[in-house]
Amino acid sequence: MDTVVWIVIAVVVVLLLIALAFALMRQRKARRRVQAGEIRQAASLRVNDVQRDEAIAEEAAARARRAKADADAKAAEAKRLSTEAQNRHGVAATSREELQSEFEHADKIDPDVPKNQKVNQNHGRHESPQNPRNDNPQNTWNDSGQNLRNQNPQDPGRQTPENTQNR
Prior knowledge:
Layout: H1 2-109, E1 118-120, E2 125-127, E3 139-141, E4 147-149, H2 161-165
Antiparallel strand pairs: 1-2, 3-4
């Protein structure tokens, strides 16, 4: 009988150990459930914070897109204005050349302009190499070397500072 008692005691001990293992596993699962619940509760409290952060991030991204669009539009406008300025400079240069050509043509056909004058590039007018003011009493010269005819104020061909500026 001694062996049978020892076998029964061994079986009871094994069953107790198995029961204890199941109880410990159940207790561990319960603790994990509680811990998971606490984590979920803490996470649910942070949902609003995360949603607010996401909304702020979206707003910042939208502002960045608007700023980029504005910058692109301004860059396009700057490029357009630059192109327009270049075109206008070209037109102005062409007009300046045509104006200079008209002055030169007028000087060539004007009998009062001596043939040995050199062209003043700034105003398209001529200066005599010997005497820039010229000694002709019918001519009056201004400081820029332009001849202002002063004989008859009613003379339509008379050059004055007003009508020389309008050329």
